[in-house]
Write a structure and sequence with these properties.
305 residues, alpha/beta, Arginase, Chain A
Length: 305
């Protein structure tokens, strides 16, 4: 975009107006809105327009931020003090009703990050938003997702852009072999069949083993960059009750962390943390999301963009 503009908390004088400036309602919590050369830019998307069971993920972004401010920032496994990293918080994108339009807005924002080789963290919000966040990722980017569901339905409740369909839409635009799916345990028969096309599928029962850690490391080694998407319902409800579509038999927090650490040294194009629904939580789910956010920020700082 070539227009120049300013607004309270938004674009700075003399700088081009970006889509992020245009769509955001800036209320930074975890970093400065104008951090110099940030290692990571955070933005939230408080949208749950297609939630199919328990609504409330629109409150997820700020709940994760509040938890992030209250977890210990030093990552002992990675040797990084995240509190000292330059992190920009661009606030939350304004909501629109239509899920496709919402995903399109996210796509415009993230495309600017990809073009500038800047790393972003998107806080959701429902998982339909990841369709917008990943679809314009640079060639050679692998997609690693933690999720209880495969989200491969062609449509759900009359929408092809539901949170139950986002990965179906993505795999229509990118090679399914670029997808590593971890934690899946709730899907239709057709979805299970479609998941066989993925480059890697790790069930909850396999996820804690040394073999699964090696399999993920090998998968990631075949890509220039990795995009990480964490649907918080990938965790067992015992670890994350605050989500819209909980499913028993899931991953533990430690298992996800162990798997994330396999990304050490890999370049990360961006990441998101989705489906946190605070109305069904006592704070546990937001804390888990904040820990994942902290460790991913540390991983980004090690590898760069």
């Amino acid at each position: 975009m070539t227009a120049y503009a300013t607004k309270k908390g938004g674009a700075r004088p003399g700088l081009p107006l970006t889509y992020l400036d245009l769509f955001s309602a800036v209320d930074p919590l975890v970093g400065q809105s104008n951090a110099s050369r940030p290692v990571l830019t955070v933005f939230g998307v408080p949208y749950d327009g297609t939630t199919s069971y328990r609504p409330g993920t629109r409150f997820g972004p700020n709940a994760i931020r509040q938890a992030f401010l209250n977890v210990e920032a030093y990552s002992k496994p990675l040797g990084v003090d995240v509190e000292k990293l330059p992190i920009r918080d661009a606030g939350n994108l304004a909501r629109v009703i239509d899920p496709k339009k919402m995903a399109d807005n996210v796509s415009k924002v993230t495309s600017e990050f990809y073009e500038s080789r800047s790393v972003f963290c998107m806080l959701g919000g429902e998982h339909s938003l990841t369709y917008g966040a990943f679809r314009n990722a640079p060639a050679g980017t692998g997609f690693v997702v933690f999720d209880a569901h495969f989200d491969l339905r062609d449509e759900w409740e009359g929408s092809r852009y539901s949170h139950a369909c986002y990965l179906r839409r993505l795999t229509e635009k990118t090679d399914p072999r670029a997808v590593a799916h971890i934690g899946g345990r709730a899907a239709t028969k057709d979805e299970w069949k479609l998941s066989e096309k993925f480059g890697l599928v790790i069930s909850p029962g396999e996820a804690g083993t040394s073999a699964s850690l090696k399999r993920l490391a090998v998968f990631c080694s075949t890509f220039k960059r990795i995009y990480v998407s964490i649907d918080i319902d990938g965790l067992d409800p015992a670890f994350a009750p605050g989500t819209g579509t909980p499913e028993a038999g899931g991953l533990s927090s430690k298992t996800i962390l162990d798997l994330l650490y396999q990304l050490k040294g890999r370049k990360i194009a961006g990441f998101d943390i989705m489906e946190v629904s605070p109305p069904y939580d006592n704070g546990t789910t937001s804390v888990a999301a904040a820990r994942f956010m902290n460790e991913l920020a540390a991983l980004v700082s090690i590898a760069g963009s």
